[in-house]
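Collaborator request, handled under Task 6.
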Amino acid sequence: MRKTCILFINKSVGKLVAKTLIKAEQVNVKAVYIVDVKNTVDEELENLLEKHKVLTGIGSSCNTDGMLEQIGEVDFFISVYWPHLIDEKCLKYARDTINFHPALLPKNRGWYPHVHNIIDQSTPGVSLHRIAEKVDGGDIWVQKTVEIKSTDLASDLHSRLMSNIYELFEENWKSIFFGRIKAVPQDQGQANYKSKYYFDKLDLLDLTETVKVGDFLRFLRARSLEERGFAHFLDEEGDKVYINLRLSKET
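Structure tokens returned to the collaborator:
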């Protein structure tokens, strides 16, 4: 019997999950909520949505358009890097759920786990888990550890986590859908949560502060992306000067 689901997708990994499930014979994708069309939908996915007559919702809304009421109850809600709350009014339409989180839960709940992996040297990883009232607190379906390299910047580790979490889903979604995997409760005593606003003050560097080289280097790695850096200091004119680190190994 085919399983029914509704997807809430964001970023490239959301696009991959949508394509995989829409094409799967064992699945009937009833609807796809898309947080950002420009960065999530390409021509292939657009054609698949049209061909299979998949309903679409755009933006952060969940059922304000009445789409869930129109569809009715489904087997699974699948949330892929979805940045908005899926509340109880929406969750009542799903018999079960899968959420993607790029950390080894219960560690590093919340925002930007890859950044904290670099700074505090916590082990990177990815988890598929149930959606729960407590953010990232639901029972874990599957998870895996992900490699971190000494030259990794935030963007490098973020990219590796996204590719690994898709692989984890691709390898396990059938077992989850058809009851061959049992979700395991998280150890709530081991949990920690980081807000998206954690770095608002830390990114402004105090040039008079004394720090260990290793700690400072990890901070700069964690706040550097391919296209820009977030760590900054104020020059003599009071202007912000941003630091974007580059590292390479001797060849």
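The cover message to the collaborator said: "Helices lie at 11-23, 37-40, 43-51, 67-71, 88-91, 113-120, 154-177, 213-222. The mean pLDDT is 94. Please let us know whether this matches your experimental observations."
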